[in-house]
Design a protein that fits this description.
Length: about 190
């Protein structure tokens, strides 16, 4: 492992896992069918961006994908000096139900823009919970980008910290099937 790589990536992924679990319990009294599966994987990169293909996650089912980037501060965000990326994947067939379980108002699941916004909202609340968890664990308060969403895949990929080679993939089961997949890539986060 290069000294620039994040030696605390697994700890960051555990914070994400615990925060997501707490969010679902707090917001919708949703209990995951089994404990989340957390797996370290190599980032697939092309021209400095991380591949984000939702159809791979759910056996070629149509999928909505949302991504949020993290930065050390507002100046780094303005310069696009990315510290990390969080990518959220939800199968198209389950997104509306998942949002209802989280007590969000119903929306037209035949309306592409409503589906994109809904996935973005989900990504935003998970990223916000992660940002709070990181801060509570003694790291600096990170800056967070607005969410970006796509159906099936991010055509140009997602920005990530260029010193990182690994990411964590977290799979969450609801109603006995994987309904949510998260990917986290994060460079070393400064402590307070």
């Amino acid at each position: 492992m290069s000294p620039k790589q994040n030696p605390e990536l697994e700890k960051n992924a555990q914070i994400l896992m615990k925060g997501t679990d707490a969010l679902f319990k707090d917001r919708g009294q949703i209990t995951f069918t089994k404990p989340a599966i957390m797996e370290r994987k190599t980032i697939i990169e092309y021209e400095g961006r991380m591949r984000a293909d939702g159809m791979e996650k759910f056996n070629n089912e149509p999928t909505y994908v949302s991504a949020v980037n993290f930065y050390v501060n507002a100046n780094d965000m303005q310069k696009k000096k990315t510290l990390g990326a969080l990518i959220i994947y939800v199968p198209q067939a389950y997104l509306a139900k998942l949002m209802r379980l989280l007590q969000y108002p119903p929306f037209d699941d035949e309306d592409e823009s409503a589906m994109l916004d809904s996935c973005g909202t989900l990504g935003n609340i998970i990223a916000g919970r992660f940002k709070s968890g990181i801060s509570n664990a003694g790291y600096i308060e990170l800056e967070m980008s607005p969410f970006a969403t796509y159906r099936n895949t991010f055509p140009l990929g997602v920005e990530f910290c260029p010193t990182e080679y690994d990411k964590y993939e977290l799979k969450f089961d609801v109603e006995n099937a994987t309904r949510l997949v998260l990917e986290l890539s994060m460079g070393p986060i400064p402590h307070r």
